[in-house]
Automatic annotation (TrEMBL):
<keyword id="KW-0677">Repeat</keyword>
<dbReference type="InterPro" id="IPR050952">
    <property type="entry name" value="TRIM-NHL_E3_ligases"/>
</dbReference>
<dbReference type="InterPro" id="IPR011042">
    <property type="entry name" value="6-blade_b-propeller_TolB-like"/>
</dbReference>
<dbReference type="Pfam" id="PF01436">
    <property type="entry name" value="NHL"/>
</dbReference>
<feature type="repeat" description="NHL">
    <location>
        <begin position="271"/>
        <end position="305"/>
    </location>
</feature>
<protein>
    <recommendedName>
        <fullName>6-bladed beta-propeller</fullName>
    </recommendedName>
</protein>
<dbReference type="GO" id="GO:0008270">
    <property type="term" value="F:zinc ion binding"/>
</dbReference>
<feature type="repeat" description="NHL">
    <location>
        <begin position="224"/>
        <end position="263"/>
    </location>
</feature>
<dbReference type="InterPro" id="IPR001258">
    <property type="entry name" value="NHL_repeat"/>
</dbReference>
<feature type="repeat" description="NHL">
    <location>
        <begin position="174"/>
        <end position="213"/>
    </location>
</feature>
Length: 309
């Protein structure tokens, strides 16, 4: 077994560990969801995006996109048509309000309208490989203020590719490894007001930040290390920025949510391994609504928890 394959297998294994919880004014505000395949239920939900109306779009292991209001009321759903090779693992919205789907095992980014209509002409990728515009396992996609797309992938390549608004390849950066600027499973991408690219470098247990607004990516910030203490990370799978100087990171390995300053100083943690309200079991993702409340995708508990930190 190669060292690279071993790292990937370790990253996919559920892990343990927790630290004391951050005060959340009495615990989660709302806990909703249950295991199942009917409307409003989940089978290991793994990604979430929230729109301008605070509606949550959630994908699970059935490859359904389900839409809920911020209190957990089911609104509508649709099915991704191809999923026998694997399920999507990343969601975000573009500037037009359409949903970007990281169609992980089909090596592409899909685009859907908010009511579930697929925009075939906006698909990027679909060919497995390491050349420009080809992909391994796609993890996430975001769009910057100029309309450019950034798409992350892991597997043999562990990189981020940048594309024009109409899907033309521009450049890439990364590569498999643990040196600054390299990745081992870049699981999630977020973008701030300066169009800086924030990457949850999951199997390196760190966050990296890049300026990719020019013709190449420049590393401008890197923080985090493996561990269970506040300020340390274990398989960060998702992150969001609140626009007020805070970063929220979900940790698959530590079963928790952690709040940081932009420079990586921990402001506290919430969660811990378990099945009770306020506990998490292998969480994959999170979203922040217009009222500053965090919606945590509590994957192996098949539910969503909303908390105000």
């Amino acid at each position: 077994m190669t060292r690279q394959l071993l790292q990937i297998l370790i990253c996919l294994t559920p892990l343990c560990g927790c630290v004391p919880a951050l005060d959340s004014s009495g615990g989660p505000e709302v806990v909703w969801g249950d295991r199942g395949i009917s409307s409003g239920k989940f089978e290991k939900p793994r990604a979430v995006a929230i729109d301008a109306n605070d509606q949550l779009y959630i994908v699970d292991m059935t490859a359904r996109i389900q839409v809920f209001d911020r209190d957990g009321t089911f609104l509508r759903a649709w099915q991704i048509p191809e999923y026998y090779r694997g399920r999507p693992s990343g969601l975000s919205f573009n500037n037009a309000g359409d949903l970007l789907i990281a169609d992980t095992h089909y090596n592409r980014m899909l685009v859907y309208t908010s009511d579930g209509r697929k925009l075939d002409e906006q698909t990027i990728g679909g060919v497995e490989g390491h050349g420009p515009g080809e992909f391994g396992f796609v993890t996430d996609a975001v769009q910057d203020s100029q309309g450019n797309y950034y798409i992350g992938e892991y597997g043999q390549f562990d990189r981020i590719q940048k594309f024009t608004p109409d899907g033309q390849y521009l450049f890439e950066w990364g590569g498999h490894g643990s040196e600054p600027g390299q990745f081992v499973r870049p699981q999630n991408i977020a973008i701030d007001e300066q169009d800086h690219i924030w990457v949850a470098d999951a199997c390196n247990h760190r966050i990296q930040v890049f300026d990719a607004t020019g013709d190449k990516a420049e590393l401008i910030k890197i923080w985090g290390k493996s561990g269970e203490q506040p300020g340390e990370l274990s398989y960060p799978y998702d992150l969001v920025l609140d626009g007020q100087g805070h970063v929220y990171v979900i940790e698959f390995g530590n079963h928790r949510l952690q709040k940081f300053t932009l420079e990586g100083e921990s402001l506290g943690v919430w969660g811990g391994n378990g099945r009770e309200p306020g506990q998490l079991f292998c969480p994959w993702a999170l979203a922040l609504d217009s009222q500053g409340r965090v919606h945590v995708i509590d994957s192996n508990n098949h539910r969503v928890q909303r908390v105000k930190l």
